[in-house]
Each structure stands twice: as C-alpha cells, then as structure tokens.
Design goal:
This is 4-hydroxyproline epimerase. The chain is α+β, with helices and mostly antiparallel strands. The chain has five helices and 17 strands. An eight-stranded mixed beta barrel has the order 8-9-10-11-12-14-15-16.
Length: about 325
C-alpha cells in the first residue's frame, strides 16, 4: 500500500481549468516527447486519471506536467494530461502552464519574454508579457495546422444529416458550420451539444481514419467544434468545443482556434497576417493570427498563433491513496 503525493498549481485559462503538476510525477523514458508520452500512457496513466477524474477532478479538468526538454532548442518540455488522455498539444493548457510556470519561477527562460516548449506535437514557441511579477498575456506560435478532410457527412438521430470538415491544429477537430440541419450553437444547451458530439465523434472515427501524415502516433478525431455567430463586437466567430467524454471547453480553445483558422485559410477566407478573434461559450476571447503558410506532407498548411490570458487560483497537494477504492478516479456515465 502507498500514498502518492502530487504538488500542483491550479488555475484557469479564460475560464477552462489547468492543473500544473509541479512535484510527484515520474521520470519518463524516451528520446522525444512523443516517446515519453507513450511511456506515461503505458505505465503511469493512473496518475492522469487520479488527478483529472472525480473525486479529485471533474469532466472539464485538464492539466500538464513539466519535464526537462528532449531537444536543445527548447527551454522546457510539457506533457498534457486531461480526461480523455494525453493530448499531443493543448492551447489553453499552454497559456495556463506558461503563466503559472513564469509567475512561480519554475522555468528560467534563455530570453526574457520568450519560451520554447518541447511538446508531443513538436516545438511550440511562446511570448509572454506582463507587469511586475504577473503574466497578463501569452501568445503561442503553434505547430502547423491544416485542413485534413472536407464535406464528411454523418446522419444523427434527431438532427439529420450533418456535414463537417476535419482540420488539425495540434489535435483533430470536426468543425460544424451553419448548414441545413444546424444553424448556430446558441440553439442548443451545453448538455445537448455534448450528447450530439459523442455520437458524431463516434460515427466519424468509425467511418474514417484521421492520422497525422508526419506523426502516425497522432491519430483519431478527439474534438468537435460547433460554430456560431459572435456576441462580442470584437470577435469573428464563436464556438463550443467538445472534448473528453462530457466536456465543453470554457475557453475559446487554442488548438481549436488553430484548426478553425487552418480550415478558413484553406477555403480562402483567411490570409497570412489576418487576425481571428474567437469567442468561447462563456464569452472569453482568444486572439488568433495566421503567421505564415507552410506544408505538412501533401497538405497546404498554416503556422497559427493564439493569444490569451490565465490566472492561478490556488496551490494544491493531492494524495492518491492505494487504500482508496477510487484511487484512480471514476467517471459517471
């Protein structure tokens, strides 16, 4: 029997939680963060479920663990953890992680105001700005995003045929735009969107393969992005992003914003240098921008950047006790 202790900083990015593990995490083997991610999932996934699921977490919980980088051009490595697994990349998680790491002196940047992160999806460069000891904004330059598939049709009971595009922005997203059987995310409650998303994601993954052409370890559709008309005068679009088993992102979603910009760029609706302000289901905003164009294997792609803010909400010491029947957490269906 053992009692495992984890030191954590808790916070949120534009409303969505971030739990940064600062002590108690295991050393991982691997020459890359993708290999370390595989080691964690193979031998230590109980840490993720214990910290993310009830009774220590909840359906929306997500977080990160800091590690020494595997590559010389990065300051720090980040392993993202959440209710659905270990994401290759997480935008809101990056903004929250950088904010809390800088404010608490957990990383020493080689250049003030800049950090390079070693993530399972690749190198992610960030800039941060603030006043005094506090970070007020983080802008991440994400991995390349691209439109993977267009016009995939799925019929859902109670809704009819839904047509989606699938884009990659660090994770694969099915993007639901306005169409015959869907007008706006505002027409549905969060619970209704969760139920629809579960069925839509299952149907799409059953009928199609979504695999990153350069990183075959990154596969499967994980997120659904429902679109809507913005309510904030400065925003270009609004979204409700489904992830995990029952979660709707409270932030505008960083990798979702990246995927959305990649989709719009592929359709000629955004160009290099264009801003794209994305509004969340609770009204918080991310400021996206297309930095340049590139390619990913046979796909035309963009390099997107996304800016947002985060706040630390507390310091947490969490125990996972082997005597506890819910040591590794639980999910209520």
């Amino acid at each position: 029997m053992a009692k495992h202790m984890f030191a954590c900083l808790d916070g949120h990015t534009c409303g969505n939680p971030v739990r940064l593990v600062t002590g108690g995490a295991p050393l991982l083997q691997g020459a890359t963060m993708l290999e370390r991610r595989a080691h964690f999932l193979r031998d230590y996934d109980w840490i993720r479920t214990g910290l993310m699921f009830e009774p220590r977490g909840h359906d929306m919980m997500s977080g990160a663990i800091l590690y020494p980088p595997t590559r010389p051009d990065c300051d720090i490595a980040v392993l993202y953890i959440e209710t659905s697994g270990c994401l290759p990349m997480c935008g809101h998680g990056t903004i929250g992680t950088v904010t809390m790491a800088i404010e608490n002196g957990l990383v020493s940047p080689r250049e003030a105001g800049r950090l390079s992160l070693d993530t399972p999806a690749g190198r992610v460069d960030v800039t941060y700005a603030g006043s005094g000891d506090f970070v007020e904004e983080v802008r991440l330059t994400n991995v390349p995003g691209f439109l993977h598939s267009e016009g995939l049709a799925v019929t859902l009971d109670g809704l009819g045929e839904i047509v989606v595009d699938v884009a990659y922005g660090g994770n694969f997203y099915a993007i639901v735009d306005r169409q015959k059987n869907f007008r706006d995310m505002a027409d549905y409650s969060a619970g209704e969107l969760v139920a629809l998303s579960q069925r839509l994601r299952s149907a799409l993954n059953a009928g199609h393969d979504f695999v990153h052409p350069l990183h075959p370890e990154i596969r499967g559709l994980s997120h659904i992005l429902w679109t809507g008309a913005p309510r904030d005068a400065s925003a270009h679009g609004r979204n409700a992003v489904f992830y995990g088993d029952k979660a709707i992102d409270r932030s505008p979603c960083g990798t979702g914003t990246s995927a959305r910009m990649a989709q719009l760029a592929a359709k000629g609706r955004l160009s290099v240098g264009d801003d794209y302000v994305h509004e969340s289901i609770i009204g918080s905003l991310f400021k996206g921008r297309i930095e340049t164009r590139t390619t990913v294997a046979e796909y035309a792609a963009i390099i997107p950047s996304v800016a947002g803010w985060a706040r630390q909400t507390g310091i947490n010491t969490i125990f996972i006790d082997d005597r506890d029947p819910f040591a590794h957490g639980f999910v209520v269906p």
